[in-house]
Records
---
Amino acid sequence: MAILPLVSIVVPAYNHAGYLAEAIDSVLAQDYPNVELIVLDDGSTDNTAEVLHRYGDAFHWETHANMGQASTLNKGWAMAKGEVLSYLSADDVLQPNAVSSIVPLLYGDVVMAYCDFDLIDSASIKIRRVEAPNFSYVAMLRDFVCQPGPGAFMTRAAYEQVGGWNNTLRQLPDLEYWLRLGLVGRFVRVPEVLAGFRVHEESQ
């Protein structure tokens, strides 16, 4: 892996125009100098497209007919050029040092690194800190403990082995994906708050 590998972050956006700019700005504010941002508007019916137009050509964005989160994310990862891949929900945020803190851990047999995060409300006020559990494949499989949350990054090599999300799943496609990804390498937790997970009335 290059000393400063390109990191591609995909934001699948559907009807979260009120939060999207904050998510985008949190990626653009990263102190890591080699980040590719891809935002895909999944046929939103609110003013998501208007929000994206304000950014001009600051990053790649496009709108397509609605096809769901998993298919949109898979499309973005297929477009991405980075050696490290990630995604950020359109209503979540990253801390400015998220990429620079996590990417150095992706070496050897580590295929995924993830972090602690803050729960935030609709006004971006912190509710509480969430300490992500240390990785245990057994716990994930047996007890449905879904360790990675916002601020999860994986290697392209691992992604190419397992493919994308299963777009037939309406619930927990991330858990099913981590189960597949965990078969090809280790996950590492960063015990530091590097992201914000938003809780609001439109949350699933």
---
Amino acid sequence: MQIKLLVEGGSMKPGPALSQKLGPAGININEVISQINEATKEFNGMKVPVELEVDMGSKTFEIQVFSPPVSELLKKEIGVAKASGLQDKSKAGNISIEQAIKVAKAKMGNLLCNNLTTALKTVVGSCTSLGILVESKSPVKVGEEIDEGLYDKQIEEEITETPEEKKKELDAFFAELKEAQDKQLKLEQKDEEAKKETAVVEEVKK
């Protein structure tokens, strides 16, 4: 019997779904959870796909851990648990092309891509839906620059470490952007509240 799970890396907890499947088989659920947590501890804080192969006859099991989804790896790179839900108005982070290459290398086997450039473009494309900038630019623009060969050196040499000076520049750019975003969101919230108050007053007047 094969069971597919998506667990919190290193901190899976007992749940009814797993109990219903393993309980009747006489498998020690706590032992399963303990081994899964041990196998996924390096992915702490991320959602991790796990496959559990259970032998009903011998009551034994094997665990196969897969690398987390691209979205989880990108969120780890920017240090957030949740990406932006307002991609157009609010950006969640700003990564370097080297960080994007790092994620592409980690996921290449699962992305059905025949080379690192294609895998990188897939990762950069995922940044759009997560509200993540790449090289302080929109992921769409960076995708075009990849096609133009702007990052051929980094791709060919599979560079995954961001130079410290560059990292500071990216962080400074995002800090300034975030401050502006937060101010804009507060203004919009105040405007929305004012509209609601006006609507209430108008309703009372009727």
---
Amino acid sequence: MTGPRPFNPLHKRNLAASIAEALLESEPVPLGTVPAFSGSGVYAIYYTGEHPAYAALADANRDGKWWAPIYVGKAIPQGGRKGAEVDDDDAELPKGRALAARLKEHADSIRAAKASLSIDDFHCRFLVVDEIWIPLGENLLISRFMPVWNKVVDGFGNHDPGKGRYQGLAPRWDVLHPGRGWALKCQPRPEVPATIESEVAAYLRGRAFEQPARLFR
């Protein structure tokens, strides 16, 4: 006779869900005003503006709903773990400012694309997480929300490849939202903005956005 499978709180699926739920319990803050803070972790960025390609997302995020991130990402400190520091409670203290720096980088990208985007239309949630659990949380958030800037309009999180490495194509994100100086040095893509906008509309069409808390039950 078989019975219900016992719940394992330490299964990686459940650990990932705990990270995702903790992130979603935090209050969104304007992306352009995130203060400096220590730690690495995961984050979700939300859009509430008037760009026609993202109308469905904006509707899902207005009025305090915050149901549909446009992008999900992670920030891991450069060089990885180099030994723990502990406080009086023997809890590891966050080191570096990888998460805050990553969010500032994203804010700068959006400001550079001022012809099509406004930083005032973006909010974010972020969560400082122990380094070893960060990929688990990010992977679950992306798989559940399928954010359009992760899945269709790729390249938002790209870095400047550096001098002598501009032979590659510019990211699709920079075709739809031009303005980043380094992307202008890359090779032009065959797509035009209208083509990518059509792909975004097709991707979002018919999607049923729901309260995020239900996604992890």
